[in-house]
Amino acid sequence: MTTHRIAGALLAAVGVAHLLPAAAVLSRDRIERAYGVTVPDPDTELLLRHRATFFGILGTALLAGAADQRFRWPAIAAGTASVGSFLALAGAAEGPSAQLRRVQHVDVVLLAALGAAAACEALGARTSA
User: Fold this and answer.
1) For residue 68, what pLDDT is reported?
2) pTM of the predicted model, to two decimals?
């Protein structure tokens, strides 16, 4: 398997991982089940559903990067910015819930996968040049 194919497979896995929470866009109940929180009001529900929409967009971009090398670096950059910013914010937060700690752990794995995809893509570009 070439390094470009490995990068594509890693991006596909990270893309699917981002599409799963995108289902929260459908309802308050899905948000509450996904994150183990109680949504206190319609405004917070709207913000969280909007957040889920961005997960769908990012997941789709990551899958596009997996399928087409022209989109790899933008997808890696967007995924890294998203996952990295959540990890930075969660790391600075006081006592996140068990559910959100689980999300942190998953995001650490996703960040490692994005790093590995970037390394594979860079190595593949260097060896094919």
Assistant:
1) 96
2) 0.89
